[in-house]
Amino acid sequence: MTDVVASTEAYTKALxxxxxxxxxxxxxxxxxKRTGAGNASRYVSDVYPLFHTILMGSPHPMxxxxxxxxxxxxxxxxxxxxxxxxxxxxxxxxxxxxxxTQPLLGYFAARLGGSLLVWFVDNDSLTGPPTARxxxxxxxxxxxxxxxxxxxxRPSEMPAAAWLSFGEWNSDTLSADKPVxxxxxxxxxxxxxxxxxxxxxxxxxxxxxxxxxxxxxxxLASLMNRQ
Length: 227
Hints:
Low-confidence stretches: none
CATH class: Alpha Beta
CATH superfamily: Cytidine Deaminase, domain 2
Order of helices and strands: EHEEHEHEEEEEHHH
């Protein structure tokens, strides 16, 4: 997507969440900066992993708690909640369930100004270390729904203009004007898997079980530290 740039860290951590819970549906927030009016340009700098077992329906008490905590944390750090990443439970399931997933996306879209960015993870590409893009990015608007059909196309089935772009934030220009190759993102994921970083990643559910686990601040370098 030409209007959305992602850091390799955000991309890697979203996939690590899925690798940690390969037989569960997962959900997390996309966090970053809006660099243009409305949704004209966005930079996804990080993710906040949320759920892997709690039924991701709306309304749900834990959903409200997670939203409030993440919204507050993002604002404190000068960031915004831009959208969500999600993966279905079954490996071959690429549907946006009208009973569960779509109401959930509608809930977040209404909370985030009417529309949100969605990263849909292609579980089929995660049976081993990734060799190609694993995420289909699209928009979801309250009232009109997704800009892609259901089942969601695989990343390779999307037009090049819809592919996720990678880059680094430039603090001098306040924009993500330092492009990063797709190969660097794939290498980042592979390096993290080799370091077993997925098993150190915590989500909101883990935090509920053990409040000492910080699911907000999780630098990738720390997750990859084997000590």
